[in-house]
Design goal:
Helices cover about 25% and strands about 40% of the residues. By secondary structure, it is α+β, with helices and mostly antiparallel strands.
Amino acid sequence: MTQKADGALVGAGDITILKPGEGDLGYMLRHDVWGKGYASEVASALIDAGFRDLGLNRIFSTVSTENTRSMRVLEKAGMRWEAHYRRFAQAKGRWWDCHLYATSRPEWEATRRD
C-alpha cells in the first residue's frame, strides 16, 4: 500500500489460499498511519477481490485478542467473530490468544451494492 500524495509505502496486505475456496486475509501497516482508514480500505478491497476475482467461498482472518483496533477493522469490512483460540500464535517470545473472524460468499453477496 502506498499513499496517493507522495507514493510512500505505508503497508501491505494479502490473501493466502490455504485450501481450495478458502483464503486467509492479512495486512500490516506502519504505526504512524494507524487510524487513517488504510486498514479498513485494504481489508474491504481484499475481501472483494477474494470473492470476485479469486472465486473464494470463505475468507477468514486471525487477530490477537489484544488488538481491538484490528478487530474493528475486520468487523467494518463485513467479517464476524467465530472463535477464540488460546495460545494460537507464538511471536515476540510469547504465545498469543487470537480471535477468528470470517465471512462467506453469501454474506458478501448480500451486502454488495453493485
